Amino acid sequence: MDRETRNHILWLSALWVVFSALGEWLVQVAVEHWPLIASTQGAVTGEAIFFLMRATVPVFVIVTLIIGYSAIRFRVPQDDEKPAEAQFATNGLFIAAWVGLSALLNVIFIIYPGVYGLETLWSSARAAVAQNALTVKVTAKQWEWDFSYPDEGIETVDKLIVPLDRPIHFILQSKDVMHSFWAPAWGIKKAVIPGETRDLVVTPTKIMDTLSDPTMRIQCAQICGAGHPVMRSELRVVSAADFDTWVAKQQDAAKQEAGSMSGMNMGGGGSDQSGGMQMQDNASGNMNMNGSGQSGSASMQDQGVGSMDMSSEGSGGSGSMNMPSSQSNTDMQMPNMDSNGSGN
């Protein structure tokens, strides 16, 4: 190795150390200002993200530095008109070291945090189900969330209220299209697929609510239609005592509502109404109309011409009509008609 090559390697090494240290410091600043993660499971995924960020900084710096250093240091002068010479260089040791190191890093990252992190999440989920986990059924539909607590007998509330430091076993279902159950403050997200029942376990570690921190909310993270941006619900983490008080109030309200529904009696009654209308003309006759209940009668009479009598009696709808005429000695009798039109 000639002196010029050694100088290039020394310069690259020095720059790599400086920029890697700067990159690690920036990552640490980002971690310190990272959004709050208020759940046990979110802390596991957060640690995996932070580890990968720190581990990839030196790799990112060396690759970027080699490209930038080569472009600047070995740039052909603008006034150089000589044809470019064919350059062939190989270094078997460097290639073997680069490939071997890359493979080793990938294996390390697959084992940790990959397999290790997944096993931590799965084991915590199994332990939560075996322990005194709170079961919450979550139903997603365009464009709202419904929550129910089957063990507590609480049905369909529009906000999620859970106790502190107690595992929550979510049962996720969708009524229409694909959604995604996402709580930013918990650092968790789970797809909600139509026709499937999916499980998610979360253990809250901080008392907070949506009003104090907007990241403490339930938000759909899968585009599901026109109302997707507003598909969110309020989320509150309270103490165990406050949660028990809230459950008792919800149960009392449900009992009162059930009692009022069972005791409701609908009935009605009415009294018969009757009325009469009479019109009389001494010269031409009189007209009398009278009705009571379901029966009624009407009489029309003209003493000079004849008489006409209409009456209806009984609830069956039968009626008779009699029209006599004294001058023509002609009687006209119309038979009784029942409600279906048959004559008697």
Can you give me a brief rundown of this structure?
This protein has 344 residues and is of the alpha+beta class.
Query: Structural class from helices and strands?
Result: alpha+beta
Continuous helix count? 4
Helicity, in percent?
25-40%
Q: In one word, what is the shape?
A: elongated
CATH architecture of the domain at 133-253: Sandwich
CATH domain class name of the domain at 133-253: Mainly Beta
Assembly level = single chain
- CATH homology superfamily of the domain at 133-253: Cupredoxins -  blue copper proteins
Strand content: 25-35%
List the uncertain runs.
265-344
Give the SSE order as H and E letters.
HHHEEEEEEEEEEEHEEEEEE
Provide mean pLDDT, rounded.
Answer: 78
Distance between the termini: 130 Å
Mind telling me the C-alpha Rg? 44 Å
CATH topology of the domain at 133-253: Immunoglobulin-like
Mind summarizing the main beta sheet?
6 strands, mixed
**How many strands?**
17
